[in-house]
Design a protein that fits this description.
Blueprint: E1 6-7, E2 15-16, H1 17-34, H2 41-48, H3 52-56, H4 62-76, H5 86-102, H6 106-116, H7 121-149, H8 158-175, H9 182-197
Antiparallel strand pairs: 1-2
Length: 208
């Protein structure tokens, strides 16, 4: 059996990937169970079967650990396939996002982090800039590809379009907790595509 791979930060000790993954899994399980406010690095270390020092070799604080791990997972999950059509891309995105929002850990962690961001400015900034900003830039590829294919007009309002892609799904799946229904995603896809086709910037009248 091959030995686990390891990395050495500049000037730091070798960090075993297997330990990092155990800590990562323990962090999300603990966060989902107790919430950010009650989360402790001691509990994460116990769940991971490691020492607290192993965490501090990777992250300087609970906040830094939360920002790093949540950002990694959230931005990777925003990768969008190129199906060749706008409708195909939108359906693939909505289907994958719906599944992610229904994940047992995500469905408990996301509302808690949004609540925690009210009292923790660094978490709020991370969710806004690193998570939301990076995700929106990735998802914007759906709209840019459609514009290049001629499926959307070249003056499509990208910001409004991104809100249309995410907003209705988040509301129905996370807030309203609608049951899993592939037919609903098909209908939502058609509505979103129709709305995207009409999402052009509003012209600003010239000042008198």
């Amino acid at each position: 059996m091959s030995r686990p791979s390891a990395v050495r930060p500049p000037g730091g000790p070798v960090l075993q990937d297997s330990v990092t993954e155990a800590i990562r899994a323990a962090f999300f399980e603990e966060l989902a169970e107790v919430g950010y406010g009650r989360l402790s690095l001691e509990a994460v270390a116990r769940r991971a079967g490691s020492g607290k020092a192993a965490i501090y070799r990777r992250w300087k604080s609970k906040e830094a650990m939360t920002i790093d791990l949540v950002t990694q997972v959230a931005t990777t999950a925003a990768d969008t396939p190129d199906t060749g059509t706008l409708r195909g891309d939108v359906l693939a995105f909505l289907t994958a996002t719906d599944a992610a929002l229904r994940h047992p850990l995500v469905s408990r962690i996301l509302p808690d982090l949004l609540a925690a961001s009210v009292h923790h400015p660094n978490i709020a900034a991370s969710l806004r800039d690193k998570v939301s900003g990076t995700r929106r830039e990735k998802v914007a590829g759906i709209l840019r590809r459609a514009m290049e294919r001629g499926e959307l007009p070249p003056d499509t309002d990208l910001e409004l379009g991104l809100d249309l892609l995410a907003g209705p799904l988040y509301w129905s799946t996370t807030i309203r907790q609608a049951p899993l229904d592939p037919a609903r995603l098909e209908r939502l896809t058609d509505k979103v595509v129709a709305a995207l086709a009409a999402s052009r910037p509003t012209s600003t009248p010239n000042a008198p």
